[in-house]
Amino acid sequence: MKITEHKKKDGTIVYRANIYLGIDQVTGKDVKTSITARTRKELKQKIKDTEIDFIHNGSTRFKGSTLRTYKELAELWWESYKHTVKPNTQDSVRKSLNTHILPLFGAYKLDKLTTPLIQNIVNKLAEKANKGEAGAYLYYDKIHALNKRILQYGVVMQAIPFNPAREVILPRNTQKANRQKIKHFNNLELKTFLDYLDSLDSDRYRYFYETTLYKFLLATGCRINEALALEWSDIDLDNAVVHVTKTLNYKQEINSPKSKSSYRDIDIDPQTVTMLKQYKRRQTQEAWKLGQTESIVFSDFINGYANNRSLFTRLSTHFKRAKVPSIGFHGFRHTHASLLLNSGIPYKELQHRLGHSQLSMTMDIYSHLSKENAKKAVSFYETALGGL
Hints:
Layout: E1 3-7, E2 13-23, E3 30-37, H1 40-56, H2 70-81, H3 87-105, H4 115-131, H5 140-156, H6 187-199, H7 205-220, H8 224-228, E4 235-236, E5 241-244, E6 247-248, E7 254-255, E8 264-267, H9 270-289, H10 308-322, H11 328-342, H12 347-354, H13 359-386
Antiparallel strand pairs: 1-2, 2-3, 4-5, 5-8, 6-7
Helix pairs in contact: 2-3, 2-5, 7-9, 7-11, 11-13, 12-13
């Protein structure tokens, strides 16, 4: 810190110093200020007081009262929130802000956003969704939750005295119960698709690659970006285990898995082990032709990590040719879960294998499969009685 002496027009001497207080915790900008005093001792005391005040004010000079509109608050919240989540979540929340939140609330002044007003907006969203109107958003509960979170941030930043969305009553969603069941292959569709894959010319590396990828997803229940992020060091072929420790985000960058529970070891069957060994040998040969080696399991040889969007286009073509429903990559995961549940695997084991953070999530997603199994149990009982 440099203290300089200045002589005023009236001849008096003052002392001045430019000091750095730190980074503003709200705006993220450097905070600097100039302090003037009549004596060096007084200047040093003023500097100390200023530094203490800055810390006591939460290391910010931001004044909540400067926020006037909901859009300003939402953007300020976003600047803080985006640094706390992974890129995929950033992308999803940013889209929700732009598509739903800001068009609904962005133009309102903060002091005009009352509980009755927000309740009316939420009621209209629910009414449209429950009537099945075109363009209605089924998951209006997510809009309400995000809006409430942003307004709570406004309370913290002292822009508003209380959260007007907190007491809003969320109308019941009657359409969620009628939503389409998860997409997956039944036994006949699965056999048809596997037969189709086996009919492809395996001498063509593209077909060999795609067949291996599809069968791997069906055998493990991995998410597509978990599979595309795998390196050969993640697969223990001797002990038949796949170690899931990472995934790809939408920027094609390596990320930690979706949640702590997504870190997992997946046991694989002997047939899948054999398939992967054959694929590894074939991949090595193809890489040599290009004068390179390959450590990424499902590399495209060009970008390193393959892009799931490009692969999805090819997958859709295969579904059409095989004349089976288009269930997408995630449908392979659901088919895997369906096969395991039909074989009697406990939900707890399925939760671990799929990498779900909560057992309730697994049960909620696949509860309809349990109902199907219950119906089958009745037919098995009838068959057993018929054999008496």
